[in-house]
Structures are given as C-alpha cells and as structure tokens.
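Example (one chain per record):
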Amino acid sequence: MARRMSRRALAHYAANGIVKGDKTVLRKLAAYLIENQRTKEASLIVRDIEHVLSDRGVVVGTVTSAFPLDAKALDAIKESVIGTTKAERVTLSNQVNTDLIGGYVLTVPGREQDASVRRALTLLRTRVKKV
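Predicted structure:
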C-alpha cells in the first residue's frame, strides 16, 4: 500500500481482509494512514468499510440504550437487523446514554432506528404544541 489510494479503495482493501479473516489488515491500514499523514480520514474510512461490509452481508452497528442491554435483548435486535437487511452476519456493540431515558437507538450503515423514550417524548411535545 505504498501509493496514494482513494478512501473507497482503502475500504475495499480492508473489507476484503476482514472477510477473509486477515487479522493484520487493520494494522496495515493504520500504518498506511499514519505514513501518508491521512489519520484525519480514519473515521470516514471506518464508515466506508462498514458500508462495504454491509454490501457483502456483514453488518456492523451500534445499539445505544439508557442501560446496558442483556444478551437476550441484543439477540432480538440482531434478529430484527437480519430480517431487514438480509445480512448473513450482524455484530452489534452496546453503548449507554442515560439521556435516552429508555428504549434504544440502532445505528447501522445507511440507517438509524430511534425507538427511545426521549424521541417519543419529543414527538409528543411537538404534537401538543401544534394543538
């Protein structure tokens, strides 16, 4: 990876390595970004990698909830993601944000599902203001 590569090319390179099980691909990618002074693009490249993986049936997402979710709840959300995306594999991380009050916000490449109490209260407040 010596010459300058586009973000798309880097994303495809990394996604290929991840799908093949190459445990060194991310280390190589990080070294390339550092060597070519492109570390500011890291979060954009990660997003691009997630989109490429999603196109290949591997969905990586985040579930943000007011409290840590148990395995049963995460599995139910995974099944929902599999049903809507037709993904072969789904990996979800759980983040906690007490501002949500309850429920969850699911973020996967190209989609966000907000099933939080905070959103429901905001919608209710908006509807009451209209009356």
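Caption: The first strand starts at residue 58 and ends at 65.
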